[in-house]
Amino acid sequence: MRLILTGDIHLGRSSSRIPENIPRESLRAAAAWSRIVDLAIEEGADLVCLSGDIADQTNKFWESIGPLKQGIQKLTSKGIRTVAVAGNHDYDVLPRLADQLPPESFTLLGESGKWERVTIRLESGEALNIDGWSFPSASVTVSPLDTYNLTADPVVPTLGMVHGDLDVASSPYAPLTLTQLHSLGPAGWLLGHIHAPRLIEGPPWVVYPGSPQAFDPGETGTHGPWILEVNNGMIGVPVQVPLSTVCYHNETIDLSDIANADAMQSYILERIQSTGDAIARSAGFFLTHTSLRLKLTGKTPISHLVAKNSELITSDLVLPMTKGSLTVEKVEDQTIPPIDLLQYSKSNSAAGAVAGLLLELEKKHVSEAVEKLILDTVEKLRNMENSGTYGLLKRRETDIELARKYLRASSRALLTELVGQIDG
Ligand SMILES: [Mn+2]
């Protein structure tokens, strides 16, 4: 028996922060779903398992229902059945879809937050129980595992399916614990909710399939559905198939040994190229765009040139790759001039004061004055976040860590400026 495991498709969404010249259609979750359907057919799968958040939101009902129904009908025409549980985003969309399709084509398990089992039996005799639980509402603050009440099957292996937040006790999205998943009957657990793919070896293994299409720069690495085999009553371990058209990646480049602007450009380009080549080798057949976030670090005499270059890299660079193109979405400049910070901090100058501040900001415990500076910064950031101008945007968590990060970045930039003035 062969299964395709996936979840968090979020029909209605697209990969974000991608240059406008990249075809929009290829970035859509609906296109990823269509590739998953094709993969299931090519692989001769018996079953497609969806672990929730298949549709993005209630307001995306009209956008998601068509592609979802079309995909499921195409699977049905090839004798492939779909089994799903609902997540916090589609707790009300999936039941409506289930009403429209015959249960032997699309099975929604565990409606109204009640555990439910379906047993799949192939003509070959191979069988599998699937135990599933669906979100009954947009938020669930208790663990669904507390009410798991299905009996252990001594003959047929069992796969568990539940959408929830692993090891986040205070989560409003069905908090789950690894300990509890390990204590229950299923030989493997297909989870949903977290977009970063993750396999925790077992037994029982636990897999977050991740979003099959990467949606934003936070969703780095390889994305795609997973294939699972069940043979002679034994559940195998799922294997991921890369399927995203976009790969987001973070890369740190140390400019310590770079002495002039030409060398800097050559070295950064070389590193971008080799990073892109490595991604093209691992990101699968469908890759059309690579989006990088760079962090430039190190003590270098050209630190004063890095900021301007960083702007131009993000605005101007488009590199052709063996698979599609590559752009740099963001550059974080962490370079500083090649000075001894400690010695500098002892000098009675503006640059010395900034060097001292930068050193202090790296430490856990700071002086009263720096403590006040951090708290003032938190307050200023909060005022900015709460400003009406940004009212429509999602608010960030403004905490001490974020303030320290901003202060370190400003100190490095200021130090580069001040040291340049002294030397120049
Ligand atoms: Mn979710």
Task: Give an overview of the whole structure.
By secondary structure, the chain is of the alpha/beta class. It folds into 3 domains: 2-240, Metallo-dependent phosphatases (Purple Acid Phosphatase, chain A, domain 2, 4-Layer Sandwich); 245-335; 343-424, no CATH class. It is 33% helix and 21% strand. The protein has 10 helices and 19 strands. The protein has helices at 29-42, 61-77, 93-100, 178-183, 261-282, 303-316, 341-345, 350-361, 368-385, 400-423, and strands at residues 2-6, 47-50, 81-84, 106-108, 116-121, 127-133, 158-163, 165-166, 175-176, 188-192, 198-200, 205-208, 226-231, 234-235, 239-240, 246-254, 289-297, 319-320, 325-333. The strands form 4 sheets. Strands 1, 2, 3, 4, 13, 14 and 15 form a 7-stranded mixed beta sheet that branches. Strand 18 and strand 19 (325-333) form a beta hairpin. Helix 8 packs antiparallel against helix 10. The radius of gyration is 26 Å and the shape is elongated. The termini are far apart. The relative contact order is 0.10. It binds manganese (II) ion.
| Radius of gyration based on Cα positions | 26 Å
**Helix-strand sequence:** EHEHEHEEEEEEHEEEEEEEHEHEEHHHH
Question: Compounds present?
Answer: manganese (II) ion
Helices and strands: which structural class? alpha/beta
Average pLDDT number? 94
What overall geometry do the principal axes of the alpha carbons give? elongated
What fold name stands as the CATH topology of the largest domain? Answer: Purple Acid Phosphatase, chain A, domain 2
The biggest beta sheet is recorded as: 7 strands, mixed
- Label the CATH architecture of the largest domain: 4-Layer Sandwich
Q: What's the total helix number?
A: 10
Helix coverage percent:
25-40%
Counting DSSP E segments of at least 2 residues, the number of strands comes to: 19
Distance between the termini: 72 Å
CATH class of the largest domain: Alpha Beta
CATH superfamily annotation of the largest domain: Metallo-dependent phosphatases
Ranges where pLDDT stays below 50 over 5 or more residues in a row are none
